[in-house]
Give the backbone structure.
Amino acid sequence: MTGQEISVNIPQTLDPVYSNMIQIAYKEDEFTFLFLHQLPQVNQARAKAIVSITPTHAKNLLAVLTKTMADYEGKFGTIAPKEQQGPQSVTTLSGYS
């Protein structure tokens, strides 16, 4: 392995989750992502996962998502922005405690 590669162990009991909505909160020392599944035709969402990371990791995540999205669109075509028809699928909360 090179200095950039690590071995990842994924437990067999770890199940994937589906999320179609996210809330992002941040404070000085962390970003917290609350992944939600909004139920169809109901004004309700269920929390599926909560992930907290450092601001440095959040900045790295942004860079990786930007590159990955560019690669995806290069392969499959541009993703057209969806017109907002109700609540946004991302909510940002700042200075939470």
Summary: The CA atoms of residues 31 and 53 lie 5 Å apart. Residues 21-77+89-94 form a domain with the Ubiquitin-like (UB roll) fold (CATH 3.10.20). The longest strand covers residues 30-38. The beta strands are 21-27, 30-38, 45-53, 90-94.
